[in-house]
Specification:
Blueprint: H1 9-14, H2 21-55, H3 60-66, H4 68-89, H5 94-116, H6 125-143, H7 145-148, H8 152-156
Helix pairs in contact: 2-4, 3-4, 4-5, 5-6
Length: 161
């Protein structure tokens, strides 16, 4: 008589996410939430930036035209703030937030370097930055697949730190 060792579906889903359907759902949900948080951060930040620029006697379009590097960095900063606020709300550690912020900041620097080397035009800095930011975020998430494939409540019981 032989016995079979079968892992129950509940066990597969809860021990790290792995390649389970539930883990994939949590992974993509997390990515979607972070993407929305980035957009909100970018929009709210643009309102704040516009007010600051108005006080300084300039505008967002003027800054985009005269200093696309500044606009690219501000856009990255605004998105990072939105994403960090959401990640902390979801109980991710500061280290995880910093890692994701690095993945979001690096494409901004890359886009600026491409602009300085005359590979792209100044008005393309933001688009190139955003197009490179999404794969960079996914790469970090894949490196930390276990963290990003867990349900939110699995982290909610852990202390923030």
């Amino acid at each position: 008589m032989t016995t079979s060792s079968v892992t129950s579906p509940v066990r597969r889903i809860t021990d790290g996410g792995g390649a389970s359907a539930a883990g994939a759902r949590h992974f993509f949900r997390h990515f979607g939430e972070m993407f929305l948080a980035m957009l909100v951060g970018m929009w709210v930040g643009a309102v704040v930036d516009g007010a600051i620029f108005a006080v300084a006697g300039t505008s967002i379009p003027d800054v985009k035209d005269s200093a696309p590097e500044v606009w690219g960095l501000l856009m990255a900063l605004n998105m990072i703030v939105g994403m960090t606020v959401w990640m902390r709300h979801r109980r991710h550690s500061w280290a995880m937030c910093a890692e994701m912020a690095g993945a979001m900041f690096a494409p901004a620097v890359l886009a600026i370097v491409l602009f300085w080397c005359a590979v792209i035009h100044g008005d393309s800095v933001g688009r190139v930055e955003m197009m490179a930011m999404l794969p960079a975020m996914i790469a970090v998430m894949l490196l930390r697949r276990t963290e990003y494939s867990q349900p939110v409540h699995a982290r909610a019981r852990q202390p923030i730190g």
